[in-house]
Amino acid sequence: MKPGQKFRNALKNNKPLIIPGTINAYSAKLAELANHNSIYLSGSGVAAASYGLPDLGVTTLENVLIDAKRITSATSLPLLVDIDTGWGDFDAISNTIIEMGNANVAAVHIEDQIFDKRCGHRPNKQLVSIDEMQDRLKAALDAKIDDSFFIMARTDALASEGIEKAIERCGKYLDVGADGIFFEAAVSIEEYKEFKNNFSAPLLANITEFGKTPLFTQKELSDVGVDMVLYPLTAFRAMSLSAEKIYNSIIKDGTQEPLLDIMQTREELYEVLDYYNFEKQLDEQFENNNKESS
């Protein structure tokens, strides 16, 4: 089954669809073992985790593609990828969609900020016109190499233009064929409800920590019609704090022994990676090579 169809099926069969962020291939395998049905690669996460850079539009298509390919090669879960503003003009957007499709990505979201974008939960965001965003979407939709590939329009209009203008933008984006809406930086549950009062299209709520949006529960969001709940960097933030504590503790305590109870064991790692099966195949290969050479 095509990745896009897997994503659409997951969206249809889960109310709401929970989409955790997976910062790398190993995180994706952990999410799959936890029985998630879809996963996410954050542009901010790529910038921070893979390049040590802030989320200010400094990473490129190639930077994100590297991580996307690693993830899709490690898991069968459909992957939603943050493609920021599409990394350039309409030809660049078309190329982005083609490359994402070739990388077995299932879905993307593209936003209506200007090219020099900012994190969606930071001030001073600037938006392109509705017409320009529609043209971005048309370029993306026309470039799909598989009809099931899911293209979501993200709007950052709420913070600067208010709910009515944000709703207007959503309608215009859906008019040109967007498959769903990523409604960024909502501050009340009523704002999601207002969207669903106007449109039946799939709606994503970004429940990121320490931002503008309160940490609404999945039930609260489902009750107002939200179709997808995104946790873009939840696991990464926990991993990062744990790593910071460990680095400091090793210097302070002179041993890692007090930290063993918060570590994944070697056996647990091997189980996730199917290590022993790989090792068995390697042993068999060595054995066969030795027989052939003798």
From TrEMBL:
The keyword Magnesium applies. It catalyses: (2S,3R)-3-hydroxybutane-1,2,3-tricarboxylate = pyruvate + succinate. Coiled coil: none annotated. The keyword Zinc does not apply. GO terms for molecular function: metal ion binding; methylisocitrate lyase activity. Keywords: Lyase, Magnesium, Metal-binding. PROSITE patterns: ISOCITRATE_LYASE. Its EC number is 4.1.3.30. InterPro entries: ICL/PEPM, Isocitrate_lyase_ph_CS, PrpB, Pyrv/PenolPyrv_kinase-like_dom, Pyrv_kinase-like_dom_sf. Its cofactor is Mg(2+). It is an enzyme of class 4 (lyase). GO terms for biological process: propionate catabolic process, 2-methylcitrate cycle. Gene3D superfamilies: Phosphoenolpyruvate-binding domains (3.20.20.60). Pathway: Organic acid metabolism; propanoate degradation. Belongs to the isocitrate lyase/PEP mutase superfamily. Methylisocitrate lyase family. Involved in the catabolism of short chain fatty acids (SCFA) via the 2-methylcitrate cycle I (propionate degradation route). Catalyzes the thermodynamically favored C-C bond cleavage of (2R,3S)-2-methylisocitrate to yield pyruvate and succinate via an alpha-carboxy-carbanion intermediate. Catalyzes the thermodynamically favored C-C bond cleavage of (2R,3S)-2-methylisocitrate to yield pyruvate and succinate. Homotetramer; dimer of dimers. This is Methylisocitrate lyase. The lineage of its organism: Bacteria, Pseudomonadati, Pseudomonadota, Gammaproteobacteria, SAR86 cluster. The gene is prpB.
